[in-house]
Amino acid sequence: MRVIIADDHPVVRIGLRMLIDLSKTCVVVGEADGPDSLSSLLSTTPCDLLVTDFSMPGNLQVDGLKMLSMVRRRYPSTAIILVTMFANVATLRAAFAQGVMAIIAKGSSAKELPMAIKSVRDGQRFISESLRATLVQADAEAQSSSPALSAKEHEVVRMLASGMTVSEIAGYFKRSVSTISKQKSMAMQRLGISTDVDLFAYARDNGMVH
């Protein structure tokens, strides 16, 4: 299999190259240090497998999911293995939805990359043990109790996602900014979300905004 490696850290690329060379079934045909060089490399170098980081700085497609979508669209026959530090459940699911074949946690790449390559060669999905545990736990929590936002929290999340600021919402409800901030952080805690981007994605996915 012809492999392209993409990661913005040279030391990570060296490690990945060593692991891939050890697998004896693959040959590294190119390396990219970001979305821009990856895009031009893919356009000139045929490859069967892309081993890539999720989030790399660059002018093009800084958003990891958009980058994956671009690769899938332009090179549908290229399999993708994601090597990432992100253990966010929503991101993992979205990556699989984009057609990624395997996701490996950066901390466990030495042990699991050869297994992932074998799985992908056999046409099977692969996910790191640690990340699988994260998904299983999230599924169990979702079944035992879908994160129940209070009516006020739901409304705050909906208004934030529709573009209002915390202070605008406070003004609307005639409440203090700190009360609204507290409801926002409580909602994020319940949902297991740590960034505004994920909060907006949750609101969108759950039909709160259109």
From TrEMBL:
Keyword Cytoplasm: no
Keyword check for Transmembrane: yes
A GO biological process held by the record: regulation of DNA-templated transcription
Sequence ranges assigned to domain HTH luxR-type in this UniProt record: 142-207
Listed GO MF terms: DNA binding
SMART domains per the UniProt record, alphabetical: HTH_LUXR, REC
Modified residues (4-aspartylphosphate): 53
This protein's UniProt keywords: DNA-binding, Membrane, Phosphoprotein, Transmembrane, Transmembrane helix
Record-annotated membrane-spanning stretches: 75-96
Response regulatory domain: residues covered: 2-121
Protein name stated in the entry: DNA-binding response regulator
